[in-house]
Input
Amino acid sequence: MTSLQQQHSLLAPQPSPEEQQRVRYLAAELERHNFLYHTLDAPEISDDAYDALFRELRCLEERWPQLRTAHSPTLRVGGGLLDGLAKKEHGRPMYGLDNVFSDEEWRDFVERARRAWDSAANGPLPVAFWCDPKMDGLALEIVYENGVMIEALTRGDGITGELVSEAVRTIRTVPLRLHGEGPWPARLEVRGEVVLYKKDFEALNARQKSLGQKLFANPRNVAAGTLRQLDLTVTQSRPLRFLAYGAGDVVWHEGAPWRCQSEMMAQFAHWGFLTPPQGRLCTSAQEVEAYARWVWEQREAFPMEIDGAVAKLDDLEAQEVLGHTARAPRFAVAFKFPAMQAQTVIRSIEIQVGRTGALTPVAVLEPVPVGGVMVSRATLHNEDEIRARDVRIGDTVIVQRAGDVIPEVLGPVLEKRPQGAVPFAFPHVCPVCGEAVQREAGEAAWRCSNVVCPAVRMRSMMHFVSKAGLDIQGVGQKWVKQLVQSGRVQSPADLFTLTVQELLGFERMGEVLAQKFVDALEHARRNAPLHRFLSALGIRHVGEQTARLLAAHFHTLDALAAADAESLQVLPDVGPEVASAILAFFASPANMDMLERFRALGLWPEAGMVSAEDSALPAGPLSGKKLLFTGTLSMSRGQAQKLAEAAGAVTVSGVSKKLDYLVVGDKAGSKLDKAQSFGIAVLDEAAFLALVSQGNRQH
Output
């Protein structure tokens, strides 16, 4: 520092001793309450009181930035967007574990360890094992220097991991500074698992359901996906937990305070880490077998999903002597539990007909509990799957909850197959309308192409009024179903001919409700924009995003109907398959008759028409932000776009430097590369949903 700089530093305002002391007190007190709330589940103060302390500390740190330490509680709050995830090598490789599936395989593992020990050292192998449940989450390494967290890496390929330091700082059970007064290692690599507790997973899926979004498959996928988010508000909003189970590289200033795994785990707890629940020291191989059986029996009682039990030699010197194979340690192994399966009987196989005419086989089962859930139906996917698995009506089959969530028929128990059971003959006619079905080359599904098929019509009608269609408020699917079943409504166009008097003839339809019903339809008839109308028509492969592109390019239905394949495919995201579906729709005489009815009724929007919902952007977390979707999402592009617009965003069709966010799904392609070259923030689907949703409490 130059003399002039020193003079300036002395003249600049400085925090008072009282303010410095207050910052230290607040930081320590907030971390103590974080530990009580998130790790011990024993809060001492209310949320409001915590928030008041937090706000005071943040104000002081903003006034005096030099007082903010690397382990300040205010660093836990996510809010920024990361450019991407850098990679870094681990100090020591993060190995996986070999598995055993029986007591006999476990004893073979112990015997191999004995032989390896005998060849490398004198005396008997210490056979005490530290055992804990094998958690089903994401492996993580957190690095500390002199007691302060400096970085965190995912396991990656075991040699190189992804740096997720900022995301991990938002996890409330991760100490940013080790508890106590030391002495601490000069460097400490703490390894463990990031998990989402089952109760928190259920709450998250309840929120997804309330938003009308796809449910997450299992807690592990959520934990892994959340930690890799580029938007820190996602990790901050989800109650992930880190549980420590081991160490990588450790450099001590003085001698190590632990000699065995059990002492290490006790020290981790003292430093403020959560550790796997119900871990214990087993003093013999037989005790380990009993422990593994106990964990299996108590599996449902654990707060997180577990898929086995882990046994490690307790003696750390013995661990070092035995070392590792190319892929796994010789001193540790995982007892893997069998999948959550059950046997039951297929009563029948039903064929469901979807909106696009696809025929989906569904196994109707004798109800059976599988992993705490009563399963009575399971999809069989398509004809090829039924044939490959040789599933027949009357078979006793093995049912598994894939990922502990989705019911799946694995196959038949052949020795229990009843006499006379014959292979299932997949229908080549629609089970609802009786028309012949077709299976296009390269597709697995058979489809009913009859546009007036009652099943197709019913689902098409429901789609027409849904949020992905015209989004007609007050015209619910329950009423649409009644109208179709009564025969009064045979086509979406029939909806716009309904009168209040007719509706009063339906049970529980009062005069006020009937008037709102008719008014909602009239509003849609007068104000529906072209892109919504196109989406509502249910053209295969044409969701809301593609409908917007078509509307913006062709402006009128007449121009779109006259388009050829070449003019369609100049649009982004319109390939041969989408173009073929559009051409097929407008080539159908029945579809053209329906469109002429719409024209006669006055429902014939053009691209220049602007609905009330599109005339102004709503205020929201994405107000004024430009978004683009690319790749395959779990929801339709249209659903995603509607969520974005409801949050105030403007959706666009191409990547430019003015783009704020690129939301990517599977197979994102060249748009992702282009966005990254411009430094545009990239979100996956979970991060996008977190942005458009209301945030959770911060602690």
